[in-house]
């Protein structure tokens, strides 16, 4: 039985496969472990994953991203409207009340359900796995999802796997998958006590959400004692904090706001993400931020200093404590 595990993130997918007594991460056609969660349609062609990256900046209105935040949600929900406001492509309400994604196929607008878009991504993951296994398509998968997903959202993900032609053996909560990855090798080395539990806190700050979980480990078994979430705190908020500061400085100098132009915003957020990743309290106290043709054919060149970054994200850092405190209280430790 050929089974793959898919870590389905907001920005990327990672594919794992049990092999040679461990878990192998499958590389894509560009030898990368991460596969972008985006679908770009150009003419009669679909570009998915790595192939969509080069197309997305030019054809941002025809590139579906952040689909994990929309699947299984109702279009009119205020949280969904807040998400849609940040997207460059068009979303509409389907007859079911769910979110539909509008992409131009052969110069004609076509509406896809979120399940269909996710199925396209999963189908691509399936083909990547097949290429790594002498052309043998995996028939089964295990798919991760946020612990705060509702039953409706989970069913929507399962529908997407069926559309993709995959048999989903299980949906596993992301925080449970993290704990399993941590514990399985330690347990194999008999590093846990037979009866006295060892408590471990896992903190997962993803692209769009934040999870804190506390897990008890004994030899051969784990128990999730608690999980707490901030569904609206993630790495993208830290990127936006830098972007808003840059946009304010750019607007003051050139009287135009790059946040108001989707193409400029995509370019700006990409540069801010790189700057964020470069900064570190362990030696990298400043990084360059150079963006060609940010808006109105004008470049932006500056530095982002660590202390300035910490000041910009101070309100976000304050939100980190709440889920930690709730997880500790719920676990009773």
TrEMBL record:
One of the Pfam families matching this protein, by short name: HSP70
PANTHER family, A to Z: HSC70CB, ISOFORM G, HSC70CB, ISOFORM G-RELATED
A molecular function GO annotation: ATP-dependent protein folding chaperone
Protein name as it appears in the record: Heat shock protein 14
Signal sequence, start to end: none
Keyword field: ATP-binding, Nucleotide-binding
Keyword Nucleotide-binding part of the UniProt annotation: yes
UniProt keyword annotation of Nucleotide-binding present: yes
Superkingdom of source: Eukaryota
This protein's GO CC annotations: cytosol; nucleus
């Amino acid at each position: 039985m050929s089974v793959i595990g898919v870590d389905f993130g907001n920005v990327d997918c990672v594919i794992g496969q049990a092999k040679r007594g461990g878990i192998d991460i499958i590389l894509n056609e560009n030898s990368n472990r991460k596969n972008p969660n985006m679908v770009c349609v150009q003419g009669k062609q679909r570009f998915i994953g790595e192939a969509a990256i080069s197309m997305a900046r030019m054809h941002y209105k025809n590139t579906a991203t952040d689909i994990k935040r929309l699947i299984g949600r109702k279009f009119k929900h205020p949280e969904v409207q807040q998400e849609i406001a940040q997207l460059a492509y068009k979303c509409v309400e389907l007859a079911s009340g769910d979110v539909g994604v509008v992409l131009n196929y052969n110069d004609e607008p076509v509406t896809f359900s979120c399940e269909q878009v996710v199925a396209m991504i999963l189908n691509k993951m399936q083909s990547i796995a097949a290429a790594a296994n002498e052309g043998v398509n995996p028939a089964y998968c295990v798919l991760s999802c946020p612990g705060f997903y509702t039953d409706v959202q989970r069913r929507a993900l399962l529908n997407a796997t069926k559309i993709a032609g995959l048999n989903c053996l299980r949906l596993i909560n992301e925080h449970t998958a993290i704990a399993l990855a941590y514990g399985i090798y330690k347990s194999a080395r008999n590093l846990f006590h037979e009866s006295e539990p060892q408590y471990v806190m896992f903190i997962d700050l993803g692209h769009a959400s934040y999870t804190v979980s506390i897990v008890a480990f004994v030899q051969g078994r784990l128990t999730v004692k608690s999980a707490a979430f901030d569904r609206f705190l993630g790495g993208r908020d830290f990127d936006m904090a830098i972007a808003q500061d840059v946009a304010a400085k750019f607007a003051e100098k050139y009287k135009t706001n790059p946040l108001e132009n989707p193409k400029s915003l995509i370019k700006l957020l990409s540069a801010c993400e790189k700057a964020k990743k470069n900064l570190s309290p362990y030696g990298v106290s400043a990084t360059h931020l150079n963006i060609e043709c940010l808006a109105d054919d004008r470049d932006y060149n500056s530095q982002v200093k660590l202390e300035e970054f910490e000041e910009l994200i101070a309100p976000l850092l304050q939100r980190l404590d709440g889920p930690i405190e709730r997880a500790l209280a719920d676990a009773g430790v």
